[in-house]
Write a structure and sequence with these properties.
- This is Nucleotide-binding universal stress UspA family protein.
- The chain has 7 helices and 5 strands; from the N terminus they run βαβαααβαβααβ.
- By secondary structure, the chain is of the alpha/beta class.
- The protein has a single domain, classed as Rossmann fold (3-Layer(aba) Sandwich), CATH 3.40.50.
- Helix 5 packs parallel to helix 7.
């Protein structure tokens, strides 16, 4: 069994607040920094959110194949990337368009992630049953261990 830690994936979407994105990154850096692992900032948006972001960020005419390039310019990714730079931790950006859980699990497999960091918000048992849980789907389907970082409640 290979015990090295080379790649850590941080799952992000518009549903993750700036405060919770910071908490996720802090947890990931505590693991990635000492291991000298690469952090993969994975930002997943819906089709409509992608079109809005592409236009707002000056990428008119971009399509799904351009998601990483477009979302690398997103404010959240820029801020988190600057934090990683400040700490001397290498990173890359993967943008995706689609359902968050599916795209995060796919990205984890594609980059051969050793660990995934995900956040979520507290829900009632009924809310979980009716609406499902993106974090739960990632935990159940991920090809590697997942660390769940509890979201700060508002």
């Amino acid at each position: 069994m290979d015990a090295t830690l080379d790649t850590v994936l941080v799952a992000l979407s518009p549903a993750v607040t700036d405060e919770n994105a910071d908490r996720l990154l802090d947890a990931a850096m505590r693991v990635a920094g000492p291991a000298k692992a690469t952090v993969v900032l994975t930002y997943v948006v819906s089709g409509e959110e992608f079109l809005d972001a592409a236009e707002r960020l000056g990428h008119e005419g971009a399509d799904r194949d351009d998601a990483s390039e477009v979302l690398a310019d997103h404010e959240t990714i820029q801020r988190l990337g600057a934090t990683l730079d400040d700490h001397g931790i290498g990173y890359e950006v993967r943008g995706a368009v689609g359902k968050v859980a599916e795209e995060v699990v796919a990205a984890a497999g594609e980059v051969d992630a050793d660990q995934v960091f995900v956040s979520g918000r507290p829900r009632s048992p009924t809310g979980k049953a009716v609406f499902g849980s993106t974090a739960q789907d990632i935990i159940l389907d991920s090809p590697c261990p997942v660390t769940y970082v509890a979201a700060q409640s508002d």
